[in-house]
Amino acid sequence: MRRGPSHVRRTTVPEAAIDRKLRASDAALMHRIRFVAAPLAALSILIAACGGPSASALTDPGEILGAAVTTASTATSVHIDLAADGTFTADVTGTGTATPIQLDDTTATADIDAAGQALQATFSIPGLLGLGGEVIVVDDTVYYKTTLTGALYQTMPLDSAGAAIPSPDPSAAAEMLAQLDEFLAQPGVDPVKGADVDCGGKTCYTVEVELTPEELAALSGGAVPQPSGLPIPVPVDLADTSVALTFRVEQETTRLAGLDLVLGAGDAGELTINLTFSKWNEGVDIQAPPADQVQGAS
Questions:
Q1: Which positions ≥6 away from 233 have C-beta within 8 Å?
Q2: Residue 88 belongs to domain spanning
């Protein structure tokens, strides 16, 4: 797998340019903060929940991932922690000029209530003008606030948020699970079982998937689209990007315990994203903010 150089020249992103871009409209802002929830589209899909009797030990990597996908549809709730580190080049100002962005210490957390069709997430990107904020989805309404919008929550209907905010509806997760199955069946996607590891006092299978730039391009017919579900800015052109995925799946329950993703883009840098899944099927209470904390609420 290709790796980025150990040293990537960092430059300061023009604050005024980014501020203008992010403030352009609510829709543009929600597109910028899609890392909170966008991953939530890819994340909520992969939730491997549901307790149940102990499973027999699995040795085939495809069966391990298949078991995690199969149990996902019965999840009622899950907690997700995200951490990202690295430097990536991206055109965040929309000017056509790519700039190295330092993403060390980028974090996000999310609670997903699949049974109640609600979610709550927070995020922080210190390297992008200290951008941070919160998103709440409840009763088909999105409440959001960021360090750019101020102390009060803004609102929009969930169906107006598009891909920026994933639906917590279980049927949406089922559709995305089908997409994951389709991805795993593509030529060039060859899961490999790694060594078993400890994960939070339990034993987890590990399954690794590595894609070279050529394999990644072949998966989409030679034209690599920009991912919409990653939690950080990515280059528009992924032609030279390699991807390494490591899944951690609990042996006893076949629940997804974690997912590590490494993007290597040569001179554009390298990015590492770590996802941890916990608190499956535990009660979660997600409420809309008080009216006095919502802009324009009576």
A1: 88, 90, 92, 101, 103, 128
A2: 15-281
DSSP secondary structure letters along 7-72? -----PPPHHHHHHHHHS-HHHHHHHTHHHHHHHHHHHHT------SPPPP---HHHHHHHHHHHH
- Pick from 30, 21, 10, 46: which is nearest to 275 by CA? 46
Whether 298 is in a domain gets the answer: no
Q: Is 222 within a domain?
A: yes
Q: Give the pTM.
A: 0.72
Query: What pLDDT is attached to residue 169?
Result: 57
How many structural domains comprise the chain?
Answer: 1
CATH number (domain holding residue 195): 2.50.20.20
Q: Is residue 10 part of a domain?
A: no
Q: What is the mean pLDDT of each run of 10 residues along the chain (298 residues)?
A: 42 49 45 43 42 66 86 82 87 74 91 89 90 93 92 88 57 58 75 93 93 73 41 50 90 92 82 91 92 82
Cα gap 235→226, rounded to integer Å: 8
How many CB atoms are closer than 10 A to CB 104? 12
